[in-house]
């Protein structure tokens, strides 16, 4: 059978940047019902978090963020997940997010670096 | 200070499978993403493999791009056993958990598997697993403990 190969149904973007001197690999994917964001400086997925927008009647959206695998004692990871779900939900669709963070340092600058890198490359999330 | 480099290289690899699917590989930094789809018995299986230096993420989509259930599996010392954990959705008897376990047994890799395949479809599960393992070996990612037939060093 000739003709065009259908496009792979999961759009994704794979890129790399340096944050505070640490080489960081990022992958951003959109599935039918979830976003997947992977940010790693250590060669593995590290800690995996889940974040979703809560259905509610109030005007202000609320979000639920939790660690589902890995470090549960590092609040910066939850902060990154919360920032990402808030920004993604307001600018792209409100799918839940699976976030993997394998980071060497957990500083505020790293948080900002990851969040801005993902948001700059979020076109495939729409 | 942030310096950004996003030069990805795309290459079409061999398309020698029966379904004639070409896989797309895209590597940047330490991460290689490979995607391919196969038609098996009227079911379209989509595969996405994200290869990190010390871990593999594999997603298997069955006729859809739903994320499915998420499992983590790894070889466990001291014996040659394998541990599997269900980390999102799923249960120990869902399809993904068996695939994750056998992936570790056959390849020796530390894996995270997301899979939306139905339960109670053993043929489909076996086919999907076979395609995935073949691709992992073809890409040179596998680290088997004992040499098997047809594995390149």
Automatic annotation (TrEMBL), chain A:
InterPro entries: Proteasome_assmbl_chp_3, Psm_Assembly_Chaperone. It comes from the Eukaryota. GO terms for biological process: proteasome assembly. GO terms for cellular component: proteasome complex. Keywords: Proteasome. PANTHER family: PROTEASOME ASSEMBLY CHAPERONE 3. This is Proteasome assembly chaperone 3.
Automatic annotation (TrEMBL), chain B:
Pfam families: PAC4 (PF16093). One of its GO terms (biological process) is proteasome assembly. The keyword Heme does not apply. It comes from the Eukaryota. Transmembrane segments: none annotated. Keywords: Proteasome. The keyword Zinc does not apply. This is Proteasome assembly chaperone 4. It comes from Theobroma cacao. The gene is LOC108661792.
């Amino acid at each position: 059978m000739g003709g065009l190969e259908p496009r792979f149904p999961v759009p994704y973007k794979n890129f790399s940047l340096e944050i505070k001197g640490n080489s960081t690999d990022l992958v951003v994917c959109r599935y039918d019902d979830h976003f997947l964001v992977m940010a790693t400086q250590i060669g593995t997925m590290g800690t995996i978090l889940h974040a979703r927008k809560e259905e509610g009647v109030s005007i202000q959206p609320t979000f639920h963020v939790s660690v589902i695998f890995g470090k549960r004692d590092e609040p910066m990871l939850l902060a990154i997940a919360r920032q990402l779900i808030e920004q993604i939900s307001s600018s792209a669709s409100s799918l839940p997010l699976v976030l993997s963070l394998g980071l060497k340092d957990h500083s505020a600058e790293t948080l900002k670096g990851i969040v801005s890198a993902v948001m700059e490359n979020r076109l495939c999330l729409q | 200070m942030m310096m950004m480099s996003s030069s990805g290289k795309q290459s079409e690899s061999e398309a020698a499978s029966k379904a004639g699917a070409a896989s797309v590989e895209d590597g940047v930094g330490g991460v290689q993403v490979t995607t391919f789809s196969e038609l098996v018995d009227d079911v379209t299986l989509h595969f996405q493999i994200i290869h990190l230096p010390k871990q593999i993420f594999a997603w298997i989509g069955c006729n859809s791009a739903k994320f499915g259930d998420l499992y983590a599996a790894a070889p466990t010392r001291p014996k040659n056993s394998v541990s599997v954990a269900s980390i999102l959705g799923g249960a120990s008897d869902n399809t993904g958990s068996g695939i994750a376990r056998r992936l570790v047994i056959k390849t020796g890799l530390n894996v995270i598997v997301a899979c939306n395949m139905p339960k109670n479809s053993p043929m489909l599960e076996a086919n999907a697993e076979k395609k995935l393992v073949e691709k992992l070996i073809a890409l040179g990612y596998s680290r088997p403990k004992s040499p098997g037939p047809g594995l390149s060093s």
